[in-house]
Write a structure and sequence with these properties.
single chain, D-Maltodextrin-Binding Protein, domain 2, 2 domains, five-stranded mixed beta sheet, 10 helices
């Protein structure tokens, strides 16, 4: 059998999900991109499974690998709006477009939680440049992790915490998704085993990220251990379905799809 083609995200938060997969090139062929590119590759049929932004699930007739996701139950640290104004006074938001889920989540929170109707403008993830052209900026992934709010004189609004305040539910940022029949039960089990191994080796992953920098290592460990969840249980599924519903309500997506799963 040909290796399963995987499109994964090139951020720190993905490392526990792909732990050790490179040791099995006969089973998995993994490439790394930003979240939006992972989705494009899946939509174009250039990968079999993509670790895609949760909103992208609604752009096709897809199936989800059971019990694996990148999620948070509260603050996530790496998906945030940075603002120099109170959020209620924000009239323009510059958007990092590298994850459509984070963009959709920002729009949902504006409409349903902050009750504002700002103008949105796409921008590269450079905070100073973004805030030069807008009142606030959405930055995600490792760039958001590296921003010191005090240095930039901004308030950091963590979107994972804001979603929890709005709904009481976890938020799912990404999951393994593919076309029906693309992955077998054994392949799904192997992906869960990789996730389990990654979670068991979070200190090792953090050491690799720190590369001798003890402060960076500790920050990476706390993020991977304390901010992120890697399952897709009932609470996460409820949060995912609610996100899809709210996104549809405000017109971010044209319609809904039921959550479908590969055999476990």
């Amino acid at each position: 059998m040909k290796p399963l083609r995987l499109g994964a995200v090139s951020y720190l938060n993905t490392k526990p999900l792909v732990y050790g997969l490179d040791a099995h090139p006969d089973q998995f062929d993994v490439r790394f991109d930003v979240p939006s590119k992972c989705a494009e590759l899946l939509h174009e049929g250039r990968v079999d499974l993509g670790l895609i932004p949760a909103i992208e699930y609604l752009r096709g007739h897809y199936t989800i690998v059971p019990d694996i996701s990148i999620a948070s139950d509260g603050a996530v640290a790496t998906v945030a709006v940075f603002t120099r104004k109170p959020i209620r006074d924000v009239q323009t938001i510059a958007l990092d477009l590298s994850s459509r889920t984070s963009v959709a989540l920002t729009r949902v929170l504006c409409a349903k939680h902050w009750h504002i109707t700002p103008k949105f403008t796409p921008a590269a993830p450079d905070l100073d440049a973004m805030l030069h052209r807008a009142d606030a900026a959405l930055v995600i992934g490792d760039p958001a992790f590296d921003i010191d709010p005090a240095k930039h004189h901004v308030t950091k609004i963590d979107l994972g915490a804001e979603w929890k305040a709005l709904t009481g539910l976890p938020f799912v940022y990404a999951m393994w998704v593919g076309r029906p029949g693309a992955a077998s039960a054994a392949q799904c089990a192997a992906l869960r085993q990789a996730r389990d191994a990654g979670v068991a080796h979070l200190p090792k992953i953090a050491r690799q990220v720190g590369n001798g920098n003890a402060t960076l290592e500790q920050r990476a460990l706390e993020y991977l251990r304390d901010n992120l969840k890697y399952g897709l249980g009932h609470a996460e599924q409820a949060g995912l379905a609610r996100f899809h519903e709210l996104a549809a309500e405000i017109g971010v997506v044209p319609g809904l799809e039921p959550l479908r799963f590969y055999p476990a």
